[in-house]
Amino acid sequence: MINLRLLAAAPQQSIQLIFSPAMENAGLEGAAREVGDMRYFPAEKLVLFSLGVKEKISAEIVRRAGAAAARWMKKNTILQAGLDLNGLAAISLESGSAVEALLEGLLLGGYEFGLYKSDADATEMEVALVAPQPASYERLVEQVKVRCEAVNLARSWAHEPANVINPVSLAARVEALAAEEGLKCTVLDDQTLREMGAGAIVAVGQGSATPSRLMVLEHPGQDPDQAPVVLVGKTITFDTGGYSLKSVDGMVGMKYDKCGGMDVIAVLMAAARLKLKTRIIGVIAAAENMVSAAAYRPNDIIRTLSGKTVEIISTDAEGRLVLCDALTYAQREFKPRALIDLATLTGGVVVSLGSTRAGLFSNNDALAGSLFASGESTFERLWRLPLDDDYFELIKGNDSDMRNSSGVRKAHAIVAATFLKQFVSADVPWAHLDIAGTADTDKEEPYSPKGATGFGVRLLLDYLAGLE
Ligand code: BES
Ligand code: ZN
Ligand code: ZN
To answer: DSSP state, 123?
Structure first.
């Protein structure tokens, strides 16, 4: 883990990290000149990280360089290093600031989930951020810290296995977090959900020893009467597929099927810490999809909270079921100005977009445009896919209003989004992000180790900041 500290001058004899565009003659002298005035750094050792060709430097390149520095420090057990903020500030980017991107790279790249490793590297490293007037950077540094801590919380909770995090234990964690961060928290248990008529979220969890929970986190913002932005997260703490059982290989990694919900929790934590003016509500729809004598089955017909009935074709298409009740609840309870759900919803989106972009579906061009733009600037990139009514043909019901899966290999990601669309009223600006391909990674990424990436947290925070 890396801690940041703002200082007016670097401690003597520390290691100084230098980020510089590549130069034909990459002598240190030239690099130093390039990044600015060195007089604040009586460093013992200067470590140069290249930002590549000057004309091509982008926020993402700087972010990756920050992560490279974090990895280098970890590898070499460097406990302390200095970093010249003024030098960085001199690097101009098309969008955003180099200081911000670099600090993000350091904090995200320095992340590791070591909770269950006996030989975990618990070393606390520190980067001293040096600027002649440190106070002028205080706000920015604080904001980056909050954002990255949120991403890293989403990662850490997602990494927790299903024998630790289940819907019931998650609710306790969320309540504790809410108390700590000053968020309002409501937890609806399975009994309450059943009485309320939320038959879909109850059905998915009914085969589990730890039944479903619907959690609501509220950040009041400046005006608690304002129509809120509501974020809904798919939170399947483990997805075996149920009776439509997943294959041995397909099941491994399904602890990450709760990533949508972890993102929502993290964003609400950050919203509270950043004191965002916008009213924001998080709805976390949690269930564990298991096999048991009590589990739901193919051909079961369930009545959702909306009153619409669904015939189960695949018990493995459970995400859309917990989400449809959560979406209905969100609209009834909060009359949102924007409704955004995040879900590791389909293998289909992984086939379409891989791990490079997440699927974006929306009934509102302005909302889709804002989210797309936030995706570009945070490098949590999205790509919009269609939602034509024609797709509903594939899941039209026979004995029920609709089916939860088409049973054929056509347009899986779009069909899942079309299912959700049936539960959203046309006048509510809604977007669905299918993050199945981006929520976790099986190889190390530039600023994410193997496992949960926290994809979506920075994107949503950027979108919310744009509403201020
Ligand atoms: N959790 C999975 C989607 C998933 C697959 C996430 C791979 C991450 C990686 C979801 O619940 C699921 O099983 N979806 C099925 C739906 C199908 C049965 C209609 C799918 O996409 O194959
Ligand atoms: Zn599934
Ligand atoms: Zn799932």
So the answer is: P
pTM of the shown model: 0.96
Q: What does residue 72 show for φ and ψ, rounded to 5 degrees?
A: -65, -45
Residue 63 phi, psi dihedral angles, 5° rounding: -60, -45
Q: What is the whole-number distance in angstroms between the Cα of residue 209 and the centre of ligand 3? A: 18
H or E stretch including 283? strand 280-289
What are the residue ranges of helices labelled H in 231-278?
248-251, 259-273
Q: How far is the CA of 254 from the centre of ligand 2 (A)?
A: 9
pLDDT tens-place string over residues 185-222: 999 999 999 999 999 999 999 999 999 999 999 999 99
How far is the centre of ligand 2, averaged over its atoms, from the C-alpha of 319 (Å)? 6
The 10s digit of each residue's pLDDT in 351-406 is 999 999 999 999 999 999 999 999 999 999 999 999 999 999 999 999 999 999 99
Give the three-state DSSP class for 337: coil
- Please confirm, yes or no, whether 409 is among the known catalytic residues: no
Ligand 1 in reach of 348 Cβ (< 6 A): yes
Q: Which helix (H) or strand (E) holds 402?
A: strand 402-403
Atom of ligand 1 nearest to the CA of 246: 13
Q: Decide if 403 is catalytic.
A: no
